[in-house]
Write a structure and sequence with these properties.
The protein has helices at about 55-65, 80, 130, 135-140, 145-155, 160-170, 175-185, 195-200, 210-220, 250-255, 285-295, 320-330, 335-340, and strands at about 10, 20, 25, 30, 235, 265, 310, 315. By secondary structure, it is mainly alpha-helical. The strands form four sheets. Strands 1-4 form a two-stranded antiparallel ribbon. It has a two-stranded antiparallel ribbon with strand order 2-3.
């Protein structure tokens, strides 16, 4: 039986007025229910015993996630590259942009369903969500800060000491508490309410004939890497993308194994219709471009995944109609409730 984490609180602070461009909106009050495993999901891999999600911890983590104080020059927040309406990716940017508009090596990955991830970063260089934020904060081309400076700024801030006290019982601001608060916000970024989910949970939804045909084809040709219900197997794969930056060797930069060169983690397809551009270098602008790549555009390489080597050549054979119905199915993975959830919004 699934273990449910049911910390029941009412979020009152999130019902405040938001004013933008002279137009005032008052969102309905949101009920904070803590972390709950969706009924069609497996057990999380995250160890909640070390960091249970609370209302105060989540509220602190959310403020940190949206605060540019974490960057060296006060211009970049986590949310600058992880935008909610794009499943917390930097929509439209091939590569992430950091301080001074510096470019990173890779496209921004989404922040969703983090409690089920075993690897973080596209090369899997981090194994614990509670350590993940150190990388972007200290990277010279992302936030460009040091943890010592970040903590000092938070200690001298008018709001943060009291927020840390509410979340952790004292005003002491430490690296561990800081990272756990950020984790609590990210853990609540759960995408599990797409049309696909409602169909699978028998919640009154059904696939159209095109969506069903696309789902059947997906199970036949795509599911080995993009396993349901998270739509990734978290393996590291070279899928025939042209090598634009030879110095970014992907997984091999972590393992130092030449067999891992230019292998990157298989991304989740949840909300994929909203997360363009695609691939670790943001090469493809549309889902059509992606499907064309898999059917006829792969580049051979010694570490190309064997899945893509067939007697008839490289890739996954797809007809025009198969691409069409696959696109219909992929669009059923869009979770508008997640993309517009006021609880996660700035």
């Amino acid at each position: 039986m699934k273990q449910l984490f049911t910390f029941l609180f009412i979020v009152t602070a999130l019902g405040s007025l938001f004013t933008a461009c002279g137009d005032s909106n008052q969102p309905t009050a949101q009920q904070f229910k803590g972390f709950t495993v969706p009924s069609n999901f497996p057990e999380p891999t995250y160890k909640f015993s070390n960091n249970p999600v609370t209302e105060a911890g989540f509220t602190l983590g959310k403020k940190l996630f949206y605060d540019e104080i974490l960057s060296l020059d006060g211009t970049i927040a986590c949310a600058s590259c992880h935008i909610q309406t794009s499943a917390f990716t930097q929509h439209g940017h091939d590569l992430s942009h950091g301080i001074n508009d510096l470019l990173t090596l890779r496209n921004t990955p989404p922040v969703q369903n983090m409690a089920w991830k075993r690897f973080f970063m596209l090369d899997g260089g981090v194994l614990d969500l509670d350590l993940f934020a150190i990388n972007p904060i200290t990277a010279h081309n992302e936030m460009g800060e040091t943890m010592a400076n970040v903590l000092e700024k938070l200690r001298n801030h008018k709001d943060y000491p009291s927020l840390f006290e509410k979340a952790f019982g004292s005003k002491e601001i430490t690296t561990q508490r800081f990272l756990k608060a950020l984790s609590q916000f990210q853990l609540m970024c759960i995408s599990a309410d797409s049309k696909y989910d409602k169909v699978k949970r028998n919640e009154g939804a059904s696939f159209t004939s095109d969506e069903q045909a696309g789902y059947n084809l997906f199970l036949q040709k795509c599911e080995s890497c993009h396993k349901e219900p998270l739509f990734t197997n978290e393996a590291f794969t070279n899928n025939g993308i042209p090598i634009v930056n030879p110095d970014d060797k992907g997984r091999a930069s972590i393992t130092l194994n030449p067999k891992d060169e230019y292998r990157f983690i298989v991304p989740s397809l949840r909300n994929v219709a909203e997360t363009a551009p695609y691939m670790h270098i943001g090469k493809f602008k549309t889902l059509s471009d992606v499907l064309d790549h898999y059917s006829s555009g792969m580049i051979d390489h010694p570490t190309l995944d064997s899945t893509f080597r067939t007697p008839n050549g490289l890739g996954i054979p797809l007809t025009t109609d198969e691409k069409r119905v696959l696109t219909f199915f992929l669009q059923t993975l869009t979770d508008q409730n997640f993309l517009k959830n006021p609880l996660l919004a700035p």
